[in-house]
Amino acid sequence: MKDYKTIKTFDQLIEVEHGKIGTESRNSYEEKSQMFIISEMLKHARKEANITQEQLAEKTGTKKSYISRIENGKGNIQLSTLIRIFELGLNKRIGLTFL
């Protein structure tokens, strides 16, 4: 049973639930979290542009099923493809931050 009574911050909660930074379970959680964020940003930007997954796929040289997998957080995506989808398909710039 996990002890939640001493938790005072979100970071502490994440550590209790997913382990310390650098552990396999934490790395898996962080990767899935980032993919979720990217998928939500893509869905939002596509809907804001008022285009379908199929139209976005056509503009970027991918398939609708690929766009769908990304939007559902189910697929791995190369950085070059992500940039192409956002910049060519949605006319959005991508900025990266490394921590």
Automatic annotation (TrEMBL):
Keyword entries, A-Z: DNA-binding
Domain HTH cro/C1-type: 42-85
CC terms in the record's Gene Ontology section: cytosol
Gene Ontology molecular function: DNA binding; DNA-binding transcription factor activity
InterPro entries: Cro/C1-type_HTH, Lambda_DNA-bd_dom_sf, TransReg_Diox_bact_type
Name of the protein described by the UniProt record: Helix-turn-helix domain-containing protein
